[in-house]
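Q: Sequence in, structure out?
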Amino acid sequence: MNFLDFDNFIFDFDGTIMDSMPYWVTRPSAYIRYKNRIPKPDLDKQIYFFETLETAEFLIKEYGLEGTKEEIYLDMENWVYEEYKYNNVKKNSIELIKLLKSLNKKLFILSASVYEIIDPAIDYNHMREYFVDVYSASSNKISKENGDAIKYLIKKHNLDKSKTILLDDSPRVLEVAKELGLKTIGVKEDFYKAEEQKIKEVSDAYLSLDELYETIKETA
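A: Exactly. Output:
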């Protein structure tokens, strides 16, 4: 597949452009350290859904946090919004974005994360100017995994599906994108290592953004 034959590139954000999956796994202990407490070694394994009232109540009881569960929940949420942008971008992801833009490709972000998370990270890393649209499925109450968000973006911008590539690390999103007639690039991500074979099956190419950058740079 010659990537330069395509006009439109739809990027996932979290775990694709941003090297942020470890952040989601370790945020309970990171938040407790932020509150000047020492997290127990198994805290990150105890908590799967972080931003919930139940988690806030648990942390109050276990670590003596001051405030009601509603206040702690709000503090946790605001802390996530503030801290996320400091995650690293994946190697050569911004260089890839700049290269594609210089080749007159249309670039889009389609994220499952809310705008409160993705917007500060985009601005912190000076990426916004390269994208035609930055769209949060969650903030707009639709789903990537059932294809509704993908169909919405295609219709909104009148994209030719035969000239559009979607880049994602989620096997389900890649699968539904193929079903909709898009070409897909499965982006390598350690978080989905156990599903690597499935990702390969539903992707027209499987590589890191660094590898994609080097490939396009050589052929441009």
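The mean pLDDT is 94.
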